């Protein structure tokens, strides 16, 4: 593991016309670290995730990322080809809505294999072998490899998304409310799985959630956002056990609904 | 050009006005310069329905000259309604000679087949294309498919082939089998059987593709590499036929099944009717060559 951060955001801001999406966000994340971004809807956490994952261009500020070759680059100076390559090799993105993160008309095996084929794998047997391995790792019965995700339960779809993203051994994974809409028991199983994979693979994860329980279970550090700004950040246990800001105190005491 | 004047025939030469033909020729030149790249063009209404190959007709109209000899094939045959009416259309509007002989033709417009007789330098093969975009089936967004082509980002094509093998145990795509052109662009060959794909590879003829409804033209210049996509462990293969043509005994050609009666009688004959007839003229005889042929198969 490197001393240098994997990703550094500095003074990141996004304006939608005159309205503030988020502003003055700065943080570093290292390999193996899980950062939770929490807040109510409209707090700017989703905008921040879109900026970090280069889906949106910031109005101000910079995001620097240490590439696999060790060179730190400004993400918005990458060419479109470099950016796409990064997105499908060194990064993952687990969406809240599996229909956005999966190809619903492609089999589970094809979903997992897509990234491999995108980076040039041309051996069917090896692609299938890797897909089988990954289905096993995310606890999907391997005899479901040729089934379509539309026949999967919500929890299975999320696990399939995770396999599809991790198959290229990314170093950074973005997660956008990955457990919302799932039953509590299904959530717990998914979080357990994610926690195991994060530890095993040394992943950095930036997870956006409105659910403080998810943040507590998964993350090492937490950023609390409100009105587009980070109002409090620190080690997850410290912030949640002893919040300094009145707003965070309200969040923690569940007075505010997400 | 000594084209008949509009006053003589009632049409401009080859139906389209000169400005439209120039516009189409510019698209064709660009397509030739960037092999396999789909060039948008302002497709015109033609006096025939889209399913009849208006894209191919416009390309033919833009490249044909008074000295050209035109052949039109549909499913390998020169005699279908579609082929006959396109041939008549150009005979009437351009006054060009027409033929059914592949070797005599300078321009061949086709739907579904590439002739069995090898093409030569100076010939132009014009394909009628219904769906030009090979990425369409998995990526319906035009903005995204354009980006994927621009970045040569073709992993999705292999996802489709993967799905084929996962479902059928082999690559089940038999028509419109995707190819990589000149090591760069992936292209749909139009609904030709994959049997014909190898004929596209380094062909001495110029190959032009016109999609009327989708308003796209693309091209494979002579002697260009055309490689069918596949997996290392599931290599591209053409269809094989167990028996030779029942009429002319040709092997290594694409055969159509012909039902002879309602008792299950059938035979396999060349899909390329000109090729089959030429072989029979030259004395080749298949096992059923002596039998009376069903109507429409000669
Ligand atoms: Zn024959």
Compute the average pLDDT of chain A.
95
* Count of runs of 4 or more consecutive helical residues of chain A: 10
Strand order of the largest sheet of chain B: 1-9-8-5-4-2-3
Largest interface: A-B, 23 and 18 residues
Order of helices and strands of chain A: EEEHEEHEHHHHEHEHEEHH
Calculate Rg of chain B over CA atoms: 20 Å
What does it look like?
The complex is a heterodimer of chains A (258) and B (298). With 258 residues, chain A is of the alpha/beta class. Chain A has helices at 45-52, 80-89, 98-101, 108-118, 124-137, 154-166, 184-201, 212-218, 236-241, 246-252, and strands at 7-16, 19-29, 34-38, 60-66, 72-74, 91-94, 172-176, 204-209, 221-226, 229-235. Chain A is globular and about 55 Å long. Chain B has 298 residues and is of the alpha/beta class. Chain B has a 7-stranded mixed beta sheet with strand order 1-9-8-5-4-2-3. In chain B, strands 7-6-10 form a 3-stranded antiparallel beta sheet. In chain B, helix 4 links the parallel strand 2 and strand 3 (97-98). Chain B is globular, with a radius of gyration of 20 Å. The two termini of chain B are 37 Å apart. The chains are: A alpha/beta (258), B alpha/beta (298). Chain A binds chain B through residues 80-81, 84, 103, 105-107, 109-110, 113-115, 117-119, 122-125, 127-128, 145-146, and chain B through 138, 147, 151, 153, 155-156, 158-159, 162-163, 165-167, 230-234. Zinc ion binds next to strand 12 and helix 8 of chain B.
In short:
The complex is a heterodimer of chains A (258) and B (298). Chain A has 258 residues and is of the alpha/beta class.
Any key phrases for this structure?
heterodimer, A: 258 residues, six-stranded mixed sheet, four-stranded antiparallel sheet, globular, B: 298 residues, seven-stranded mixed sheet, three-stranded antiparallel sheet, 27% helix, 17% strand, disordered C terminus
């Amino acid at each position: 593991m490197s001393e240098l951060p994997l990703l550094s955001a500095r003074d990141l801001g996004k304006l939608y016309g005159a309205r503030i999406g988020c502003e003055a966000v700065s943080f570093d994340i290292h390999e193996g670290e899980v950062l939770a971004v929490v807040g109510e809807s409209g707090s700017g956490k989703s905008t921040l995730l879109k900026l970090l994952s280069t889906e949106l261009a910031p109005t101000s500020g910079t995001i620097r990322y240490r590439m696999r070759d060790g060179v730190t680059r400004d993400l918005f100076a990458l060419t479109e080809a470099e950016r796409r390559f990064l997105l499908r090799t060194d990064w993952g993105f687990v969406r809240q809505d599996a229909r956005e993160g999966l190809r619903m008309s492609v089999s589970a095996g094809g979903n997992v294999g897509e990234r491999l084929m995108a980076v040039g794998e041309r051996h069917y047997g090896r692609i299938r072998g890797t897909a089988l391995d990954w289905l096993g790792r995310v606890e999907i019965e391997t005899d479901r490899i040729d089934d379509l995700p539309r026949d999967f339960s919500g929890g299975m779809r999320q696990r399939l998304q995770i396999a599809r993203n991790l198959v290229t051994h990314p170093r950074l994974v973005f997660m956008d409310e990955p457990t919302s809409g799932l039953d509590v028991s299904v959530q717990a199983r998914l979080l357990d799985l994610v926690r195991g994979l994060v530890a095993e693979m040394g992943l950095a994860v930036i997870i956006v959630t409105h659910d403080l329980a998810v943040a507590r279970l998964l993350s090492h550090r937490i950023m609390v956002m409100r009105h587009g700004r980070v109002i409090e950040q620190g080690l997850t246990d410290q912030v949640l056990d002893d919040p300094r800001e009145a707003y965070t105190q309200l969040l923690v005491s569940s007075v505010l609904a997400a | 050009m000594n084209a008949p004047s509009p006053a003589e025939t009632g049409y401009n030469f080859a139906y389209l006005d000169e400005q439209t033909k120039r516009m189409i020729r510019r698209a064709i030149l660009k397509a030739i310069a960037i092999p396999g790249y789909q060039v948008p063009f302002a497709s015109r209404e033609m006096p025939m329905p889209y399913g009849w190959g208006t894209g191919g007709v416009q390309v033919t109209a833009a490249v044909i000259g008074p000295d050209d000899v035109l052949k039109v094939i549909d499913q390998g045959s020169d005699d279908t309604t579609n082929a006959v009416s396109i041939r008549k259309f150009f005979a009437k509007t351009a006054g060009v000679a027409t033929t059914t002989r592949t070797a005599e033709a300078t321009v061949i417009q086709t739907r579904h087949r590439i002739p069995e007789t090898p093409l030569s330098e100076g010939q132009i093969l014009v394909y009628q294309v219904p769906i030009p975009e090979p990425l369409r089936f998995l990526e319906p967004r035009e903005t995204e498919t354009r980006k994927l082509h621009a970045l040569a980002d073709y992993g999705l094509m292999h996802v489709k082939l993967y799905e084929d093998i996962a479902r059928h145990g082999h690559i089940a795509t038999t028509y419109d089998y995707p190819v990589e052109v000149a090591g760069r662009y992936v292209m749909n060959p139009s609904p030709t059987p994959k049997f014909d794909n190898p004929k596209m590879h380094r062909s001495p003829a110029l190959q032009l593709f016109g999609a009327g409804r989708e308003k796209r033209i693309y091209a494979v210049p002579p002697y260009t590499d055309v490689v069918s996509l596949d997996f290392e462990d599931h290599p591209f293969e053409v269809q094989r036929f167990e028996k030779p043509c029942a009429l002319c005994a040709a092997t290594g050609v694409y055969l159509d099944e012909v039902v002879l009666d309602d008792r299950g009688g059938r035979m396999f004959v060349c899909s390329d009717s000109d090729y089959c007839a030429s072989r029979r003229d030259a004395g080749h005889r298949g096992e059923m060559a002596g039998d009376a042929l069903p109507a429409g198969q000669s």
